[in-house]
User: What shape does this take?
Amino acid sequence: MSGPRIEVDLQKIRQNTQTVVRLLRAHGVGVTAVTKAVCGHPDIATAMLDGGAMDLADARLSNVQKLRKAGITCPVTLIRTPMLSQADQVVQTCEASYNTEIDVIAALAAAAIRQNVVHGVIIMVEMGDLREGVFPENLASVAEQVIEMPGVALKGIGANFACLGGVAPTAAKMVALSTLANEIEGECGPFIQTVSGGNSANLPWAMSGQPTGRVNNLRLGEAILLGVDPLSGAKINGMHTDAFMLIAEVIETNTQPAPVTLVSPALTPLRIVSGPVDTTRLILAIGHQDTDASGLSMPAGNTLIGATSDHLVIGTNRPTQCVGSEITFHMNYSALMHAMAAPDVKVEVLQDRHPRQSRRTHSKAAHLSLV
Ligand SMILES: *Cc1c(COP(=O)(O)O)cnc(C)c1O
Assistant: This one.
């Protein structure tokens, strides 16, 4: 094996999915597994479906196309509002999409009519994160326009938290989302099938025992992949936090103490530390082009000194680490997302010890029988 690589343990991803699916099922909430951090990697997506996820979602059309090319036929929802320029491909590739712009919905409807299908629309409501969404006071009017538009069907509403603004989802916000679902049903008629409460940051709320109301779906990426709560970074009980490991090779060792002078203004986001005097300096063949170096956890006995585009410099008190040896890191979400998208980082799927029957041909009927 050469070059930096990510080792993925599919069994751990499947078990993490099973754990959240089981916990949330008790509260009447289904899980949509989000594949964007792993760039729509088909084996990882399949592990999520095997673990009981109802369906998949991704933010990028290119990732969904990768899933389809690999033969995954389950419902896939685009969770970033579609680009107007991609309306045709979105309708072709995704059963539904999250939307905030009536012009885009109109383009999707026109594309769906041309393709003789009906495209599902979930309206994203802005509830405080200040990223995407229709303001609650405009929701009924947008919903009404969607209902009247041939080619699209209103499938639900959704909210997103803790992404741009870092606003945590509270019980009160979730009650407000439930109320909105009831209100637009009152005003517009059709049953709102999906009320999607948010992402991994919603798990503490969902598990807290508060009534989940109309919220019957969460879109989970980070919690399944890394087993942590994104807001606190804390491990979720019973979840694996080591499904992904990043491995890089040592290309230089240097017995001089770690120089403090490495600090440069460009590196200020990194925690630059100088090691103890007996520290050996190691250079690894991985850098900013491959991952978010500040999101790597150093193995015991190692400290991060700094990183440049192609080099990672660490201090170690393990003198056994020679040129050609490999060092393994845990990654946070940012490090994982960058590494998965980096062309020079190989993704190696570990031997699956107990492969279950592949659910790549997982159909809507199969998913209904799960509930
Ligand atoms: C990324 C994203 C998610 C998943 O977020 P995680 O924190 O990885 O669970 C859910 N919904 C939307 C709209 C997203 O953009």
